[in-house]
Amino acid sequence: MSHTIAVIEGDGIGQEVIPATVKVLESLDLDLEFVEGEAGDAVKAATGEALPQETYDLAAESDATLFGAAGETAADVILPLREAVDSFVNIRPAKAYPGVDAVRPETDLVFLRENTEGVYSGHEDDLSEDLSTLTRVVTTSASEKLAEFACEYVDGEGFSVVHKANVMRKTDGRFRDAVVRVADDHGVETDEVLMDAFATRVCLDPTQFDTIVCPNLAGDVLSDLAAGLVGGLGLLPSANIGDDNALFEPVHGTAPDIAGQGVANPMATVLSAAMLLNHLGYSEESDRVETAVETVLAEGPRTADLGGDADTDEVTQAIIDQL
Amino acid sequence: MSHTIAVIEGDGIGQEVIPATVKVLESLDLDLEFVEGEAGDAVKAATGEALPQETYDLAAESDATLFGAAGETAADVILPLREAVDSFVNIRPAKAYPGVDAVRPETDLVFLRENTEGVYSGHEDDLSEDLSTLTRVVTTSASEKLAEFACEYVDGEGFSVVHKANVMRKTDGRFRDAVVRVADDHGVETDEVLMDAFATRVCLDPTQFDTIVCPNLAGDVLSDLAAGLVGGLGLLPSANIGDDNALFEPVHGTAPDIAGQGVANPMATVLSAAMLLNHLGYSEESDRVETAVETVLAEGPRTADLGGDADTDEVTQAIIDQL
Ligand SMILES: CC(C)[C@H](C(=O)O)[C@@H](O)C(=O)O
Ligand SMILES: CC(C)[C@H](C(=O)O)[C@@H](O)C(=O)O
Prior knowledge:
Strand order of the largest sheet of chain A: 2-1-3-12-11-4-5-10-8-9
Distance between the termini of chain A: 22 Å
GO molecular function, one term (chains A, B): isocitrate dehydrogenase (NAD+) activity
Radius of gyration of chain A: 19 Å
Protein name (chains A, B): NAD-dependent isocitrate dehydrogenase
Order of helices and strands of chain A: EHEHHEHEEEEHEHEHEHEEHHH
Structural class of chain A: alpha/beta
Bound molecules: 3-isopropylmalic acid
InterPro entries (chains A, B): IsoPropMal-DH-like_dom (IPR024084)
CATH class of the largest domain in chain A: Alpha Beta
Number of strands of chain A: 12
Largest sheet of chain A: 10 strands, mixed
CATH superfamily of the largest domain in chain A: Isopropylmalate Dehydrogenase
Organism (chains A, B): Halonotius roseus
Keywords (chains A, B): Oxidoreductase
Helix content of chain A: 40-55%
Number of domains of chain A: 2
Oligomer: homodimer
């Protein structure tokens, strides 16, 4: 079966790590067709729009999308793209790799972040000179959908439900109740942790947690916290999963300080592509790509962010050589 | 000048650390009058109300309040109490003390958390079987008031403004604009950091930051994250400051696992009392109390949470002996 992959480089090092990753994917000789789309600061400067309609449509119509990064326009690009692929969950693994400097090298977490609502639903109003409001939305249906996915994802293990229902009683209360109910129905164990307590506890001992199911903003902040514990955003992949469609992106941004020099680390994007392969049913190839990255991490070469002096091409070639 | 201090032990180790702290305050021979009020789980079980009106009134009418902790009813007690004292800012220092096991021993931060609005303003509605909303409120006036306080607090230094205005454009945009404008007017330097990026960066290197000014929930979560970096909530004090009134509380909770045994560490509450003394104008005594705690931390005795075997009374007496 042939798959169409939308490829959106975006800005900065997106223009380096995405072509590198496409090379890795091409070396697998699968029946993948890559179609390029444009988005980001440069497109906005040229056309007035950070995300042209045709890029939105491309993502919506492809089997999967690989996205790099956008600069100032990040929110204008990534939030509509997540919607274009109808993604209801953002999967964010945060795993410390051996040999990579980490505050908490024992960290191995996966965040399943609700990807459609919470404060991201975006109804804001200026009600007076002095006052603005934002309407935070939580539905049982979106919470249940996330929970169904989580139950399948954990494959017999339990998960933690992280929320702030002691303050956001109706909204996060609804979220918590729906998630726990679905988990109970599936015989999946859950433990509940308040969002603030989670922030303390994960620093003290990340091995207390495995899979974390949480609302949108909590997932944003707490997964970035976990990124801090594993040594930074540099290696972290992510997936936005919808029913018929999905988008994969490194967690890092455009890295303007090193963009254009050909020295960016492609690994977070390559690991995102491994998630893409798995999503399309190429689970054996997905494992091979992940293992290849781990081998290169262990044996080198390494880019500057990991203390090496290899460039993007050398690391990309080393990954391909390991496949 | 005589000051009336409302003293609310609450539940669990609140009933141990508050009396210990009152002993420390009494040993200073200042003109302080202590008046006890009740709140928390036990009061709710007995009377149906976690925060009786007379305790609310006591906090509102006293010059300052010292609060311990509440269990299940924490939100029902602390949120109205913060309102009773009209507090517009929650000051949360997170400093790693020498000799205390910390993930990031170089951490020395102070969070100035907006204390009246954001998601805490609490307008929630169940709009249908499926959907609940929460109205997040941000006003220019509350943001400016916090910023005015921050400018005075940092005393010539700059501060970081942490927000999520790339998603919450009108509400956090209003917050950011107001805070930065006030800082500019005072010639105070600011740098802006997105809330998620802050979570990563503070783990990687907490020395990048000093004073952080942020909305209510951001302050809740990010100060608890910082607590994780300094080794836990055990030593952290906090202050809720209003124009004519204030409330001081340890960041830790009721610690049900050790409550009733007389072995709780009183230091977070004693440090909260040091903030209280400073607030009432006893800055010399405030410094003495803080130094006494630091000396006992360095020389012992220590409670079990810090690897020692002293009980609450011994540590309290050691602090008093250092004054
Ligand atoms: C760019 C921004 C809108 C986005 C988010 O908040 O989701 C980013 O922080 C992320 O987590 O991918
Ligand atoms: C108990 C809870 C309502 C409270 C808060 O969210 O403010 C607590 O977490 C805190 O930070 O003091």
